[in-house]
Automatic annotation (TrEMBL):
<keyword id="KW-0812">Transmembrane</keyword>
<keyword id="KW-1133">Transmembrane helix</keyword>
<protein>
    <recommendedName>
        <fullName>EAL domain-containing protein</fullName>
    </recommendedName>
</protein>
<dbReference type="GO" id="GO:0071111">
    <property type="term" value="F:cyclic-guanylate-specific phosphodiesterase activity"/>
</dbReference>
<feature type="transmembrane region" description="Helical">
    <location>
        <begin position="1"/>
        <end position="16"/>
    </location>
</feature>
<keyword id="KW-0472">Membrane</keyword>
<feature type="domain" description="EAL">
    <location>
        <begin position="23"/>
        <end position="278"/>
    </location>
</feature>
Length: 280
């Protein structure tokens, strides 16, 4: 019995240590990645349904890992959020975007870049202060810069008043706000009104049923009404099929994002496509 108890105690200690070591090494892996600029900005366009015009792009990070190759965000973003490394990572991405975006700025109309953040990042001075400095340093960020945070994780444990203040602070330097994954989380209508988002992105789970399911269609048409009432730009996320694109437009949702139009792509490919498109 005693041997068993001692044995499991040791096993538990071993497990805990192993787990702690793994976390520590992931942490330093991320750290090295940030320092060595292994994170690459991918861009996915936002499309105006009526005209097909590209009005902006969401910035989606990819990790060019020296050993694992191209790594998608869901494999490292949760860990980076847990350790707080997401702040340094996001600042670096925005700085890269600020430099990349200049090329886009020289071509015709205003074009916006949208970056993903969480409510806890916005509440963090160590993130917000350098972010404001970056915005003030780069002309390309000063007017057409959007921050989006997800309804999934952002409202459950944040104080709405604090969030509102933090958002205002960034509005003061020109930031526009988008609510991501709308329909999946906790934001009630009163929260939406209070935080007065400029953009609402309808979660792709609604878009999936948009061509076939009549209940989903009536939800989407109500969302379109709501968007008009709140004076928000509504974007349908995850548009993959022609039929979905057509339904979304018919239901009165003005903007779309999704594989049907374009996948996220590195800057060079984005700019090439964008050039072709804007010369038409
Ligand atoms: P999200 O913010 O909802 O981003 C949209 C995700 O949907 C992206 O996945 C995009 O590639 C994917 N997507 C776009 N169009 C379609 C479509 O038509 N069909 C389908 N099935 N998917 C589509 P990605 O790039 O893998 O990013 C996943 C999530 O990781 C993002 O979800 C976001 O929450 C997070 N993420 C990505 N980049 C960043 C970042 O730089 N910072 C932070 N904090 N989170 C990020
Ligand atoms: Ca997003
Ligand atoms: Ca999300
Ligand atoms: Ca989303």
């Amino acid at each position: 019995g005693l041997v068993f108890i001692l044995g499991s105690a040791c096993f538990c200690t071993w497990l805990t240590r192993r787990f702690a070591n793994e976390q520590k090494s992931q942490r330093s892996d991320l750290q090295r990645g940030i320092e060595h600029n292994e994170f690459v900005n991918y861009y996915q366009p936002i499309i105006e349904n009526k005209t097909g015009e590209w009005i902006g792009a969401e910035l989606l990070v990819r990790w060019h890992h020296p050993r694992h190759g191209l790594v998608l965000p869901m494999a490292f973003i949760p860990q980076a959020e847990e350790t707080g490394q997401i702040c340094a990572l996001t600042l670096k991405m925005i700085e890269n975007a600020a430099n990349e975006k200049l090329a886009v700025m020289t071509m015709k109309k205003p074009f916006y870049i949208s970056v993903n953040v969480t409510a806890s990042m916005i509440a963090n001075k160590a993130f917000v202060e350098p972010l404001i400095a970056l915005i003030q340093q780069h002309q390309s960020l000063r007017h057409n810069f959007v921050l989006e945070f997800s309804e999934r994780d952002s409202f459950a444990n944040s104080d709405i008043n604090e969030l509102k203040q933090a958002m205002q602070r960034l509005r003061d330097v020109g930031v526009t706000w988008a609510l991501d994954d709308f329909g999946t989380g906790y934001a009630g209508l009163s929260t939406l009104r209070e935080l007065s988002f400029d953009i609402i992105k309808i979660d792709r789970s609604f878009v999936a049923g948009s061509a076939t399911d009549s209940v989903t269609q009536s939800i989407l048409s109500n969302m379109a009404d709501m968007g008009r009432t709140l004076k928000c730009k509504l974007i349908a996320e995850g548009v993959e099929l022609k039929e979905q694109a057509e339904q979304i437009d018919a239901l009165g949702i003005p903007y779309s994002q999704g594989y049907y139009y374009a996948k996220p792509m590195p800057f060079s490919r984005f700019i090439a496509k964008f050039k072709i498109y804007s010369m038409q």
